[in-house]
Amino acid sequence: MSNASPERDGGARERLQRWLPKLVLSPSCVLVLFFVYGFIAWTSYISFSDSGMMPDYTWVGLHQWSRLWTSWTWGIALHNIWVFGLLYIVSCIVLGLILAILLDQRIRAEGVLRTIYLYPMALSFIVTGTAWQWFLNPGLGLEKTMHDLGWQSFSFNWLIDSNMAIYTVVIAAVWQATGFVMAMFLAGLRGIDGEMIKAAQIDGAPAWKIYARIIIPQLRPVFLSAVVVLAHLAIKSFDLIVAMTGGGPGNATAVPATFMYSYAFSRNEMGIAAASAVFMLAVIAALIIPYLYSELREPRS
Amino acid sequence: MSAASPTARRGIATRAVLYAILGLFAIVYLMPLYVMLTTSFKTLEEIHQGNMLALPGQWTLDPWREAWGSACIGLECNGVHGYFFNSIKIVVPAVLISGLLGAFNGYVLTKWKFRGHKIVFGLMLFSCFIPFQIILLPMARVLGILHLANSTAGLVLVHIVYGIGFTTLFFRNFYASFPDELVRAAQLDGAGFFTIFFRILLPASVPIIVVTIIWQFTNVWNDFLFGVSFASGDSAPITVALNNLVNSSTGVKAYNVNMAAAMVAAVPTLIVYILAGKYFLRGLMSGSVKG
After folding, report:
1. Which residues of B touch A137 (CB under 8 A)?
2. How do residues A230-285 score in pLDDT, each as one tens digit?
3. How far is A274 from chain B, CA to nearest CA, in Å?
4. Whether residue B274 is found in the same domain as residue B186
């Protein structure tokens, strides 16, 4: 072996070189296959099993799913995520688009303003939640400030009102994400071909008409991206709700993510928790997979 | 300019309105940060008597001192500093290792394509978007089996595993536009897999390395779900400690201390954002739109 011929030695090296890329990739593949797809399979199975505090692999069919679906709290969570998601997505897109259009008017301090609008994205939801909880505190926050300023009848106790608390979460969430949506629209606006706009300007079309007829329709891909990104963020939202309302008052601001967490770790109902997690995954997969597929297709030339 | 025509004057008025609206939005955006900062320098009496929007009448550093060193979280009254260092202990290895793996993955997936490379990338990419609730139950068990439950090492593992998707995405998209000819030329010169990576691609990767580090740093630092699920008690990260401090139901609420603790949790990512906002934005964009 010691005097292996140069060819054989070269052959071994070549073989190693051929396998090296896959070898380097394999640890990540193993990790992802096990910790992502293996775990998805395990959780999915648990949602059809008799698991409570400990995993119990007895197959019980749709038992956990029917318990989930008849759960009163789950009903509230689904209702809340609809209200929250819809308001969050629409408000972020409307505000983000308006800010982007306003910023696109050759504004002198654009860089500073952009930095200000976007900084909440760098903060943890727990920090934002803490800040907003304080800001909206009925006794000492905004309400008291308005009273001090002379507006005695001003009342804002949404944070502790079970019918309104979810809207305070919407306000904080919109505040946090609008800058990001604005940045997406701004990038879209900067990429629009100027020829058509110039032609319309020469024809004397008013600015709002140019936006409504030419510019905004061209931003369709940005709208799509924004909706997908915001929807998936909304479904995953957990931190902000925990920090602002803790899911309360009562269960008033429960969402699927907080529901899953409390059934998994406080109520020790693994089966129901797993079913709710699978439901969340299914909704996000239905949203994300077609989007990723269209984004990653070979670009048409 | 001197003889302002009616249209020019109208133009000036429009721009004034424009700046006013943008300025108003800026104030609304800065308000929570402003209130958080000023509250953290006020005494409790002033908070109860004074106006939330006013500057502190009497500046005090006590809330910061208490938040850092003596505020009670759970049963222990040592402030948030230990949790702050927990977060650092989690962030540094998690960012470095997931970044390195992502760089290698991106390199292989663009320059050493093999049959099925798209499927591998697709599977990794989808893992960025899954709701992590789907992995909480099995991960808690696996960490228990590995004796990594309630440890920062366990959280490092979790953040590496679920960070690979994004780091791979960043590097893959970056290396996709790196000229194949350079790689092929080096191959003809006899350069091997690692030589090409370390000598040719890596030196050109500074921008994407910065984007990846900032993205991973922000994500891992701000994580709450993994922290609260897998590391209660002494090994909790700062976000979990902050939430425990703020939302504990016992005693009088010390809003100034809460705000100081929130600022402690916010400062690292804020600094990164202020120093490298451009790269932060680039990470956000390529995390959502095609890079």
Report:
1. 255
2. 998 999 899 999 999 888 788 889 999 999 999 999 998 999 999 999 999 999 99
3. 7
4. yes
Of B35, B137, B246, the CB nearest to A273: B137
* Residue written as token pair 């963020």: A233
What is the distance between the alpha carbons of residues A290 and A293, in angstroms, rounded to a whole number? 5
pLDDT at B290 over 60: no
On chain A, the residues whose CB falls within 8 A of the CB of B134 are 39-40, 43, 277-278, 280-281
**ipTM > 0.85, yes or no:** yes
User: Any chain A CB within 8 A of the CB of B237?
Assistant: no
Q: Is A155 left (phi over 0), alpha (psi -120 to 50) or beta?
A: beta
The CATH number linked to B106 is 1.10.3720.10
Q: Is B233 left (phi over 0), alpha (psi -120 to 50) or beta?
A: left
- B23: nearest Cα among A172, A107, A128, A96: A107
**Å between A200 CA and nearest CA of chain B:** 19
In a domain, B1, yes or no: no
Q: Which pLDDT does position A293 carry in this prediction?
A: 83
For chain A, what is the total number of helices (H) and then of strands (E)? 15, 0
Q: Any idea what the CATH number is for the domain that residue A91 is in?
A: 1.10.3720.10
Contact state of A28 with B284 under an 8 Å Cβ cutoff: no
Structure tokens at A299: 């670009």
Tally of domains in chain A = 1
State residue B250's pLDDT score: 66
